[in-house]
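Please check this:
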Amino acid sequence: MSAPTVYDVAERSGVSIATVSRVYRNPDSVRAPTRDRVLEAARELGYVPSGNARGLASRTTGVLGLCFPDYADPDAEADGADVDDSAVMLYSDQIIRGMERAARRHGYALLIAASLEGGPQSLVEQVAGRVDGFAVLARTVPTEDLEVISRRLPVVMLAGPREIDHLDHIEVANFDGEHELTRHLIDDHGLRRLAFVGGEKDSPDAEARFDGFRAACQEAGLPVPDEPAARTVMMTQAEGARAAEALLDRGAEPPQAMLFANDQMALGALHALEKRGVRVPQDIAVVGFDGIPLGRIVRPSLTTVRQPMRQLGEDAVDLLVKRLRDRSREPVSLMLPVSLTRRTSCGCPAQEPRP
């Protein structure tokens, strides 16, 4: 089956080839009803707009892609000004490093598309026609667009639940990790007033971690909240600092522990609490999730759930390469384990995993 062309889209939507081209090159120059009709025709046909259509058809680009939302955290870079660059690598940085390592091993280059401006459609246009296959972090590209692209290219979904059954998929044990962390605070430190700080509701990893927190509270006979104590729009250090301050300012008895859905927010909270004269962990314990390197350098060092971020990237490349070699193989869904890293921010002595 040959790949659909701009001619097919023009015929299906009843417009000229020039109009189809303008829809993708300068969408504001085309009336909305016409633009929508062209995009719908392209979606139905499985047409992927790109200047490199020949590469899409032949699968010979020698490049693999990664799409993820760009949630760069400038606060993390500032904190790491006096330490090795590897110490300030964040979640997506670690995944990229894993993908780069595996791509080189298989003889591929890596193309990265990270953007908030322009939205998911621009990410698809940047990557889909220039690579042999690509990995997509959850929430980056709408499910319906992935359905279209996956007809032509191997796609691996990273993080979050498996939304498309016929795609390869990798996630980590978010529920189990947060459940173990919460029980540690309850059982080993005797903490009872716990506040979970999550992300937006459509963040699948953050919601799975909140579910693990709720399950641990229920098992311990503690109140089980329907919603996190606070939510943030972007899970950055600045947002974590604001959430910590908001929890302190509510007027009620402050929590004994703040559990953040990722390490970046937890690091921001540590700074905010220090400025307010709140001692960690003596007054409030603070914990995170991810295991980014910066967490072991801050003081107090951050208790967290360590997930295998580089392995996520390496496994994504391995699955893409296997799919390129055999498009008919059964789809694979992997669940990678996580581990609890106890450090001083919860009241434990520092404990680092063995190399």
About this structure: The longest helix spans residues 309-325. The radius of gyration is 23 Å.
